[in-house]
Amino acid sequence: MKSTKLKIKNRKGITLNANLELPANQKPNYYAIFAHCFTCSSSLSAVRNVSRALTQNGFAVLRFDFTGLGRSEGEFADSHFSANVDDLLDVHQYMEEHYQAPSLLVGHSLGGAAVLVAASKLETIKAVATVGAPSTVNHVKHLFSHQVEESAEKGDVEVNIGGRPFIINKDFVEEFDKTDLPSIVENLRKPLLIMHSPFDKIVGIENAEKLYKKAHHPKSFVTLDNADHLLTKEEDSQYVGEIIGTWAKRYFPKAKNKMLSTEGEQLVGHLNIVENNFTTEIQTKNHAFIADEPASVGGSDFGPSPYEYLNAALAACTVMTLKMYAERKKWDLREVFVYISHSRKHSDDMKDKTDKPKYLDHISKKLKFVGDLTTEQKDRLKSISSRCPVHKTIASEVVFETEII
């Protein structure tokens, strides 16, 4: 995904640090804002992973740091709940003025509570998704319950949250008691997706139940089995982004997939080298997916490697070709398995000696057929497997044309 760094002034003149993530084709169909969890920041890996998955569904995602957190200006004591909501409203206004009014709000933990309140005040928001959100805003006070009384007596008090020191005051604590979140959810009347883990030890699953009961349809709930509150596992945050992206598009006007304007292109690949290491977004006319390298060679393993995609293309083309041939022959072929591996072998190790370069690409293709087939039929299918178009392309001499645009 392509990332653009932004500096956004809120209503108090405080500069908020933000990143606008764009789809691979840099032409989003929809815009979304992501609100991070309490004391977190927009650079949290879970936030980046969810944003990446959303961009693959055609969304541009603005992730930003609330006042006093991450790289934003201001003091944490000023980052009370109402200030978080105001930051969301100000960021939304900035997007509306400079890009396009966001139509989706996504919030994690207390950020989920903040997007519910903000959505009730923004007409352009068509759908809301929360992840691990509390059912009451004052739920967060349990994180520093021992210092609540002390702040009422002494004013500024240092608290430890998640191993990090923060300064809070009486106003900061009292702000959490001012918002009636259940009533806001009951009156929201916008499509709502609630995602929560039954293993969440910070915000219990009962919070999701309370929010769901208060909300009106259309509403949806997805359980995040085995996930923790911060979505520390990459597969959990990736899953969250994929589900939200697929769910939200149901409530927006269907947009045509916008490709880069290179004449005659069939596919576009994009890699933001600064942000994403090897993680590459690929988009065809109707589909988007990810390529990556395994962790063993320095990648993040978010998707298949380039050679795995090459093998996948060969495997898919092979089984499709065999299906069509067997149907035409009216043979009892019910299933086909193709096992493919690619390697580089020294020519001296090859069964067939050759005068070609010492190292050659070697592709192993093993076929398994399910059905009532004779030995002769299986042998014929084996022969036909080499006639699939992708096999022919790989085996033939290919002419490449490369240009800079």
UniProtKB/TrEMBL annotation:
Q: Which domain of life is it from?
A: Bacteria
Question: Which parts of the sequence belong to the Serine aminopeptidase S33 domain?
Answer: 45-138
Q: Which residues cross the membrane?
A: none
- Which PANTHER family does the UniProt record give? OSMC-LIKE PROTEIN (PTHR39624:SF2), PROTEIN INVOLVED IN RIMO-MEDIATED BETA-METHYLTHIOLATION OF RIBOSOMAL PROTEIN S12 YCAO (PTHR39624)
What is this protein's name?
Serine aminopeptidase S33 domain-containing protein
Q: Which organism is it from?
A: Winogradskyella psychrotolerans RS-3
